[in-house]
Design a protein that fits this description.
Largest sheet: 4 strands, antiparallel
Number of domains: 2
Structural class: alpha+beta
Helix content: 25-40%
Strand order of the largest sheet: 1-2-6-4
Radius of gyration: 29 Å
């Protein structure tokens, strides 16, 4: 547990330091130019990260690396590597594929070797079968009330007694007033 907490703290601190540094770089790729197919995938899901046209210089080599705990993989031709280099298309776009292996936070950083442009995409990997339901993983979610039936009957009974009391008070007041 402590190791996981320490790993999350280190990743958070690294993100706090590196993201502003990347933002201040002369060639930072705006978030609007980064398209992530699924920002909250489950382990084993392949995620496509696209840096759109103009993100990098046409034809330049773009090196992408992934970091996270545990270490995810980045795939272009090979699977199981943490970094790879790919040439940008004629319009300056480039596409990378990431396959997270376990729950956690994964960051892909792409750097253009000629332009120095830097693009960062972050994924939050959810546990498989992480459906929030009272029946446990893989169970059907509760879509109805969580209030026990006995509480509903008790509430209805109290309401009926209140209505009866009000009616008795009204009838008694009318009789006393008429007499």
């Amino acid at each position: 547990m402590f190791k996981k907490f320490l790993a999350v703290a280190v990743l958070t601190a690294a993100a706090i330091v590196t993201v502003p540094l990347a933002a201040n770089a002369a060639g930072y790729v705006p978030a609007a130019q980064i398209i992530v197919s699924d920002s909250t995938p489950e382990p084993g899901d392949q995620v496509t990260i696209t840096f759109t046209a103009g993100s990098f210089t046409p034809g330049e080599d773009v090196t992408a690396s992934v970091s996270g705990e545990p270490t995810p993989t980045i795939a272009i031709v090979k699977t199981g590597v943490a970094s790879t280099t790919k040439a940008a298309a004629a319009d300056g776009s480039v596409v990378f594929y990431v396959t997270p292996g376990a729950p956690g936070v994964v960051t892909l950083t792409a750097v253009g070797e000629d332009s120095g442009n830097i693009g960062v995409a972050t994924l939050t990997i959810a546990p498989a079968d992480s459906g929030n339901n009272a029946n446990g993983p893989g169970g059907l979610p509760n879509t109805g009330s969580q209030i026990p039936v006995l509480a509903l009957w008790a509430g209805g009974g109290i309401l009926a007694l209140g209505v009866a009391l009000v009616l008795v008070m009204i009838i008694t007041r009318r009789r006393n007033h008429a007499a």
